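User: I'm preparing a small set of examples for a lab meeting where we compare how different chains pack in three dimensions. I only have the primary sequence for this one, and I'd like the structure in token form so I can line it up with the others. Please keep the answer compact; I'll paste it straight into my notes.
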Amino acid sequence: MALVTTAEVCDANPQLIASGDLRALQPVFQIYGRRQVFSGPVVTLKVFEDNVLVREFLEEKGNGRVLVVDGGASQRCAILGGNPVVQAQNNGWAGIVVNGCVRDVDEINGCDIGVRALASHPMKANKKGIGEKHVPITIAGTRISDGEWLYADTDGILISLTELSV
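Assistant: Understood. Below is the structure token output for the 166-residue chain.
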């Protein structure tokens, strides 16, 4: 998103907003990581208080993608920590959005990757490997599907049906 803000994208695309092809997530996420502005094609994951599948995804090459995790908005443990975020950074992920909590915030904030989460929590997640990959999810009032595009900056997070030419 070359110097175009999410606010400018919204202002320039009222027809996409009206049709539902461009959607804004509710403003519930905290900003982590050094990369405050990021975008890329979405990969979805649905888990609950379990981070095995999160770690498995981030071990793959990211190729500029954004992992969007529906963690059920749980605030009882963190489903993303510093080590997987370092791995995501090294594997070329553009960002990670977690509808849940993170931990190891200082380590995450040292990484050149964009991370959004509801909050931080010191307790670790379960390790059962239960969840669903590449399924439509609904977080922050917005339905998100695999392959859609995510655009994030300090104003918020947008989901677009297709890549925007900005």
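A couple of notes for your slides: The first strand starts at residue 22 and ends at 24. The chain has a mean pLDDT of 96.

User: Perfect, thanks.
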